[in-house]
Each structure stands twice: as structure tokens, then as C-alpha cells.
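Worked example (supplementary).
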Amino acid sequence: MRVDFNVPLDSSKKITDDKRIVESLPSIKKVLESGGRLILMSHLGRPKGKVNADYSLAPAALRLAELLECTVTMAKDCVGTEVMKQVLALQDGEVILLENLRFHPEEEANDPDFSRELASLGEVYVNDAFGTAHRAHASTEGITHYVQTAVAGFLIERELLYLGKALQEPERPFVAILGGSKISGKIDVLENLFKKVDTVLIGGAMVFTFFKAQGYEIGNSLVEESKIELALKILEEAKAKGIKLLLPTDVILTAEISATADCHPEMITSIPEGMIGVDIGPLTTEAYRNEILSARTVLWNGPMGIFEIDNFAAGTLGVAHAMAEATAKGATTIIGGGDSAAAVAKAGLAQEMTHISTGGGASLEFLEGKELPGIAALND
Ligand code: ADP
Ligand code: MG
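After joint prediction of all chains, the assembly is encoded as:
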């Protein structure tokens, strides 16, 4: 079973957030409780194809043992005769965690021999690592060529259920909220969502490229000059398709991006020279809240402002709270994107959303309508 145990560690190798391990438990328990012999594999960090004790999965094995209240054997490597011996010694209902797959350059190279070696350890392959499903690696794609049965685990099933349903048959009205730092990073998502969405709410730094395209002064706000024409094209396309595309009417301005800098709201028609837009303003937050509360499906990707700084986080938090309210009213609320998920967690609202995607890059590619190689390769 390919899991995503790529957990954050502190300097003393303690896991600072075990969410990814906890989220893998349903699939793990299913196999163990059915009497299976479970071989887990994962990557951790970027050891760049070399053995590096700093990136050992041993802390994950310890944490998993605590969570399962059973012994978890930690393998010295992920392939080789020693590992094969340990795997053959497993009894029904026992579990072994292979050492970091990325200690071998063959993993990310999707090497066929390495894939075959991994496959030779087991009989059934389960992929439950959504976060790496957009990469064709040996443990996600290559391995499927050497096993009879390659299936999705519960975590991936859940991702496909929510992200897939939103894109294919959303309950309407379907509102998408798009933010983050760049138009260029979200343009494919926007294009794909345009096929399904009723309303789009725009926030984050990309609003300034839209504003500039419409002829407003934007001070020193982040802008992608090369995307100005694209921004105009998007506005026209929305109009042609009858999609309600909302841009902020007010923004939060500051003279410098720092935790101690002063900031204040201003209408977008009067952004002074030198000022930087760092969040959506209170009027916009209220307008977006109303749109969110009238929706049956809400998909959010990309923070509304530089939420890492508390003074610039109100718009992002406002949207997060509105989504929590919408969930309570029965709407399906979905968060995709690593920073957006972090913002929701920071607001303490993670439990109030229908679904928070576990894969930053993978959920983005899925929302762009791309096929994820690690999922396409599965036969069920
Ligand atoms: P996600 O990971 O949810 O897909 P992105 O990675 O696209 O989101 O964007 C997140 C980043 O966008 C955050 O680090 C945030 O600080 C930045 N950002 C949001 N609004 C602005 C802004 N007005 N100016 C500069 N950066 C911004
Ligand atoms: Mg991000």
C-alpha cells in the first residue's frame, strides 16, 4: 500500500503534525482487520535519491504503532533481499513500513526494474497517497504494471468522490472561489471550472492583474504584466458564458508587507501610488459571504490575501467562516490547495468543511481536468 507519510518533523525528529498518518488509518485498518499482511511504502521529504538518515520514515513507524496499538516493523530499505526476508516473515494482520522510497533515484524516475522489485513484495497493490497521484513514480504508476490488482484506498476514493462530483455533477448554485498569488498558477483551473460553475469569486494577488486590465491604478500590488490580455479574455469569456464573475470592490492596502505594518481598506478605484493590495476588503468579504451562503456547492482554491500575516488575514478568514456557515446549512464545501487548507486549519474550521483535499498539487491538477497518472493506472 502506497501511503503518504510525508509528515513534517522538527529538529529532534518528532512529528509535528500526524494528520497524514491518521488519515491513512481507515485503509490500513481495513487490510489488517481482514487478516492481510500489510506492506506500507511512502516517501518523506526530498532526499534526492540518496540514503539520508534525516529523512528516515522510522518516526512515522513509531507514530503508526501508537495509533494502531500494535507493533510496526521498520524495514531498513524498500527493496533488496533483506527487505524480502522481513516481508516473508510477516504474519496475518501484521504490518511493515518500508524505508523512504526516495532514497533510490529509481523511484522518481519511474524505473521499470525498481517498480517490478516493489511489486514482487506483495500480491495486491493499493494506492492511498493522493498527494503524489499526479506524479508517475515507481510506487504510484510503475508498480501497477507488475501486479494483477491495483486499487484505490479509502482516502483516494474520498478525494475522487468530492472533487470528482464537484466537477461533474455539482448541486447548484455552484460557486468557486479562486485566490492565491498568480493568475498563471490558476488559469487552467479557472478554464476547467468555467465548464461547470455558476459564480466565480476572485481574490488574492491575481485581482490586481484583472484591475490593471480594466484600467485601474494598482500601486505596487503584485501584477503579472504578461497576463493582462488573458485577464481581459477571461472576463469576456465569463460574460459570454453567463457566468457571474465577481472581483473585489475594496481591498486592504499597506505600504509594506510586514507583520507590524499599518493597513486600511480602500475602494479599488482609489489605490494610491506606492501602496500594495494584500487582502480583499470588508465590503468584498461581506459580498462574497452572501454568494457563498446562497450556494449548494462551494469549491475554494487559493487564499484571499497574504493570510500568513494576521493583519492581512481577515478576508481569508471571512471566507473560511462563510464556508463553515454554508456547510452547516447543508451545502457541500470543498477546499483544494495546500495554502487554502492551511488557512482553514489556522481558522480552526477544518472540521466544518465537507472535504479538505489532502493533495496540494494533485488536487490542483485534478481541478485543471488533468488525468492523474497514479489514479489512471489503477484498475478499480
Ligand atoms: P493554494 O496553495 O491554496 O493553491 P497558492 O499557493 O496559489 O494557494 O497561493 C497562496 C499564496 O498566495 C499565499 O502564500 C499568500 O500569501 C499569497 N497571496 C495571496 N494574496 C496575495 C496578495 N494580495 N499579494 C501577494 N501574495 C498573495
Ligand atoms: Mg500553495
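Two points are worth noting when inspecting this output. Residues 19-33 form the longest helix (15 residues). The mean pLDDT is 96.
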